[in-house]
Structure formats: structure tokens, C-alpha cells
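Mods, move this if it's the wrong board.
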Amino acid sequence: MGSLDRAPRAHLIRGRPRSRSVTSPSVDSKTVGVGRTRSSRRRLAALGVLAAASVFAVSLVFLRFVLSGNLHYANLVWNLVLAWVPLALALVVYDRVRRGVGGPLLVVPLALWFVFLPNAPYLVTDFILLRDIQDMPIWFDVTLLTTFAWTGLMLGFVSLYLVQEVAKRLAGAFAGWLVVVGALAASSVGIYLGRYLRWNSWDLLLQPATVLRDTAARLESPQLIGMSLVTTAFLMVAYAMLYVVLQVALETRDELA
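Not the wrong board. C-alpha cells:
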């Protein structure tokens, strides 16, 4: 009798429907939405810091004018404006790739980014002005030039990072680093053309044959070769440092999450 009493109970227990964990589509959509919100906040934070650095740099030029009564280094403001152009174009490229946009709508801003990228690291070469302008304490002018140079480098490197991520997504990590090396090497040549031959980025768009012919005529120039190699090495080391620090920060954030 005892075994007959237990059997139905066991049968009832085995017959109970078990609860199954079902993933709700709304949970996934909420997770994606939160991720996009965090990404947008990080982007706004980065742009805010770069904008604050730019405002500080411009304010130093204004303060210098108030103290000295001249407009030395005022040209740096325009150079800084040009340094923002590659970042704006890189943001366009990055967003269009995320939305699956291709063709001319992607190629055009990417080509323009490549042409205008040298304007960002070009600010580093403005230290050469210290030889001719000496109407203020040297420490003030060094601070001013360092602020512009550092801000220009960060603008260029952030834009390069975005384009590298695009290349990595489309063709792999190796292709991403090929883009980095090629872009920095071309930028080094562009810096030489701007500093010594006084060509601008838009000249390559308006009169490309003349710019390319002028560049080809100097391919064997020791000054062009030496400056391009050293500048490329400097930019590669600086960018690699920033990239590694950024990757470590992202990994640390993921471990703590």
C-alpha cells in the first residue's frame, strides 16, 4: 500500500510543467539601447573635452594680444579650425558605416578625411615660430604652442582611431593598422608640403595636377625624405601610446562592469 501511495505523487511531480527561461525581445532591445546611450555619452564627453581644449588655446591667443598688443600666433586659430575638419569627416564615415551606408556617400567623406588629416598634426610644426617671435616671455609662448599642438594631435588621433575601427570592421585588424601607417605617412608628406611649399589641403582638390607635380619633383629631396620619416615615426609612436592606453581603459571598464 505504501508503494502505491507514493507512485501517484511521484507521477504528479514528474508531470508538473517546468518553468523555462525565455529571453524577452524587449530585454535585448533595452540592452542595445543602453549601449547606444553610453556610446553617445562617451562621444559627447570626448568632443566636450576637445572643444574645451580648443577654447583654452584660443583664449591664450586672445590673452597674448591683450598683453602684447600684437596679433602674433593669431594664424594658429585658423589652423585649429582646420584640425577639426578631419574629426568631423571621420564621425560622418563612422556613423555611415554603422548604418550600413556605402558607395559614394562613404567614399567621398573618407577621401576628404584623408586629404584634410595633415592639418591636425601640422600644428606641431608651429613651434618653429619661436625663432622669430620673441615679444613675450618664452614660457608663455611655449605653453600656447603646446596647447595648440596637443589639441591638434588629439583631434587627428581621435579621427584616425574612428577610421581605423571602420577599416577593422570591414576588412580586419591588419587592414586597420595598414590604414594607420598609410595615413600617418601621407600626413607627414602633407605637413612638409604645407610648411615648406605652402600648399593647402584644398589645393589638392582645386589643382591636384600642380600639387602632385610639385611633390614628384621633390621626391629625392633629403629634406622631404628626412622630415617625412622622422615625422611618421613620431606620429606612430604617439598614436600607438594613445591606442594602447585606450584599449587598457576599455578592458578595465569591461572587467569592472
